[in-house]
Amino acid sequence: MKATLLATLIVSSALLSACTTTTGSNLDATKALTNKEKAVAVLNSIESGNPKAISYINSTNYTQHNLAVGDGLAGFGEVLQALPKGSAKVDVVRAFEDGNYVFTQTDYNFFGPKVGFDVFRFDNGKIVEHWDNLTVKADKPNPSGHSQLDGSLVITDIDKTAANKALVSDFVNTVLVKGEYQKMSQFFDGDSYIQHNSEIGDGLSGLAKAIDEMAKHGVNMTFSKVHKVLGEGNFVLTISEGEFAGKATSYYDLFRVENGKIAEHWDVVETILPNSEWKNTNGKFGNL
C-alpha cells in the first residue's frame, strides 16, 4: 500500500509536470497561481488528497527540514500514508509571501490537533525546500481569552514591509537574544499588546508575569540565534533557536506591527528532536 501511494504521488507529479511543459493552456494555468496559492494547495492536499497539488513540489529536488520526516517527495508520501484514513484536517488561517518564500499558519488535525507554521522556498515556481514548527493545540483560551490562531487577518502596509522586518528583528535580537529587557518598552505602544501564546496574557504586564512565573519554577527560556526574518506588510515571522527548560528548542514567532510598534503576537515553540531520531540530515534550520 505504501509503495502504491508513493508511486502514485511521484507518477502524478511527473505527468502533471510534463503536461505543463507541453500544453500551452496548462502552462498558463500554472503560471496564474501565485507561490502563496501553490503552498496553500499543497497543505490542503493533506486533507483532500488532491494529486495535482503534488505537481507544485519539485519531484527531484525537495529538501525537508522537519526532522521527523524523510527527505524528498518520498518522505512526504510516507507521512501521508501513516495518517489514519480520514483523520487529517487542514485550515490555513494565514498565508504570506516574501520573495521566493511563502510562510503559513495552520490549524491542523495531523496525528492529533496541532497548530503549525510552515515555510516553503520556491525555485522556478516549484517548492524545493520546507521548514516547519508544530505544537499541540491548546484546549482552552489563554489568560486573556485568545486562542493560538484568532486575531487579525488583514495584510496591510506592504510598503512598510522592510521597516517592519527591521523593527521585529531588532526586538528579537535586542530583547530575546541579548536579554536587554530594559529596552522592551520601546518596541510597544504601552501595554497595548495582544498575546496568543496559550499560557500568557495580553500586554507587557502579561509577559512580565509569565517570565516571573517561569523563574519561580526554575524554567529558563533563552534565544541564542535568529535564523530568518520573513515578512509581508504588517506581519513578520522570525525563526530562532535556543533552549526552553533545558531542551534545544525552535521558536517561530509571528508579529503584527501597527504604527511602528508591535501590536500582536502568535508563536509555536517546538522541542528539537535529538539527532538519534532524525529521519533526514538537513537540520532544523539548514539553509535558512
Automatic annotation (TrEMBL):
Entry keyword set: Signal
KW Nuclease (keyword) present: no
Domain SnoaL-like, first and last residues per copy: 170-265
InterPro entries in UniProt: NTF2-like_dom_sf, SnoaL-like
Highest taxon, organism lineage: Bacteria
Pfam families cross-referenced by the UniProt entry: SnoaL_2
Signal peptide positions (record): 1-18
Keyword field contains Signal: yes
Record SUPFAM superfamilies: NTF2-like
Gene3D superfamilies the UniProt entry points to: 3.10.450.50
Name the UniProt record assigns to this protein: Putative SnoaL-like aldol condensation-catalyzing enzyme
Source organism: Marinomonas pollencensis
